[in-house]
Automatic annotation (TrEMBL):
Transmembrane segments: none annotated. The keyword RNA-binding applies. GO terms for molecular function: RNA binding; RNA polymerase II C-terminal domain phosphoserine binding. Signal peptide: none annotated. PANTHER family: RNA PROCESSING PROTEIN LD23810P, SR-RELATED AND CTD-ASSOCIATED FACTOR 4. The keyword Transmembrane helix does not apply. Pfam families: CID. This is CID domain-containing protein.
Amino acid sequence: MDAVNAFNMELFSMIDMKPPISRAKMMSVTKSAIKAIKLYKHVVQIVEKFIKKCKPELKVPGLYVVDSIVRQSRHQFGVDKDVFGPRFLKNFSETFQNLYRCPEDDKTKIVRVLNLWQKNGVFDMDILQPLMDMANGIIAPRPAEEGNITATEGNVHSQ
């Protein structure tokens, strides 16, 4: 748990910083996340909490933390052994709703990260497309909600 607490302190030390966040700081946050890999669920939850609670101008740096952790994990342990990417996916829709509460100018930076993830095959397009749509104000239904059409909606009554 010490590694998780160290990561928490490292990440939340950004809370009072003004963007841009230095490369050295990003690497330090990423390194402490990787050190806490045994408790990766806690690390992901801490990042999600940071993105939810931080000031609007720190939303994009929060996304950069997600990106940096996932890329480092995939590089260090291999795509098939990366635990961070799949865990971030569990709450991606909510996380991105929080991310898009950033200044209007920053939305293009979010889309840029999504495009890089697509280009580099970090996440599948079926995951990325709804997140890209959010940038344009389109809120796609969650997969569990898509099949909830009532029987009467499909029936046409003629007389």
